[in-house]
Every structure is written in C-alpha cells, then in structure tokens.
Amino acid sequence: MSKTATSPRYRILFVCMGNICRSPMAAVVTSALAQREGLGALLETDAAGTHGHYHAGEAPDPRARKVGAKRGYDLSRMRARRVIAADFDRFDRILAMDHENMANLLRLCPEESRAKLGMFLDYVPDLGVSDVPDPYYGAESGFERVLDLCELAARGLLAACEHGQLAR
C-alpha cells in the first residue's frame, strides 16, 4: 500500500466479536494516547468485529462509553461494523482482542495478508495475559479492566510505531 505525505504511517484495525466493547475501546484509547504524546499523525485506528452483524451501526456499549469518559476517552463517534475483505488490504496491522477472534480472522484473511495479524496484548509481553476478556456479560468493573489492558497495550503499540518496529 502506498502512502502519501499526508497519510498516516500506520493504519491499525482492532478486532473483537461484536465491536461494541473491546475493539472500539482499544481504537479510541490508542488514538487518544497517540494524540496526547504528539504521535497522532503517525497512525490511524479503527475497529471491527468478526460477528459485527449482531450490532452493526450501534454505538459502543453504554458501560464502555461510561468508563471511557471517566478517563477522558470519547467513544461516542464509534459505530459497530463487521470485518470486511477490504480491511486486509487497507490496514497495516489487524490486532485481535483474543484467540477466538484471531482464529476467526485467520479464516477470513487471505494468505498474503496473514503477516498483518497479531494479538493486541502482544505489545505488553511481560503481562502474562494474552486475551483481553470480553466484559459484555459482566459488571462495569470488567470494562474498567479492559480499559486498563487497552492503555497498557496501546503504550507498547505506540512505542513500536514510534521506533519503526511495528511488524507489517
């Protein structure tokens, strides 16, 4: 994919199941932290779901919006959508929130784009956790935990972007 002088250096897609909890939180947190650190022009983020048709067009879960707002993240503009074939060409990295969604991405992804796939929490290697848990059926505290994980992984991802170490 060719990039112009005005386009971001990296385009990153975050993927969960329904695209109303984890992946929009990851996209907004990563984008907001990039802006705060003066790296906003470095990347573009988006979110999608492997089963996005369940919630297509919906705003993120109200609990996600609430816990995000408490920390200064505005999820109100996000809308759920499903991963589409064009995403595998458009994005430089496609990061799954858990292994189940990674398996779904592997089924959808053309062979030539598989190197773009990864796990979001791989950017926090010493964490000892590889999946961002789905908070949908739990309490608000689950959304707080997801936000904590997103902030940690986003910082690692931004460091990789800044140092040109983001695998493509």
From TrEMBL:
Which species does the entry assign this protein to? Accumulibacter regalis
> What EC numbers are recorded for this enzyme?
3.1.3.48
Q: Which keywords are on file for this protein?
A: Hydrolase, Protein phosphatase
The protein's name in its UniProt record: protein-tyrosine-phosphatase
What's the domain of life for this entry? Bacteria
InterPro entries noted in UniProt? LMW_PTPase (IPR050438), Ptyr_pPase (IPR023485), Ptyr_pPase_sf (IPR036196), Tyr_phospatase_low_mol_wt (IPR017867)
Q: Which parts of the chain are coiled coil?
A: none
Q: Source taxonomy lineage? A: Bacteria, Pseudomonadati, Pseudomonadota, Betaproteobacteria, Candidatus Accumulibacter
Supply the SMART domains for this chain: LMWPc
**Which Gene Ontology terms cover its molecular function?**
protein tyrosine phosphatase activity
Q: Which residues form the active site?
A: C16, R22, D134
User: What is the top EC class of this enzyme, as a single word?
Assistant: hydrolase
Q: Which gene encodes it?
A: yfkJ_2
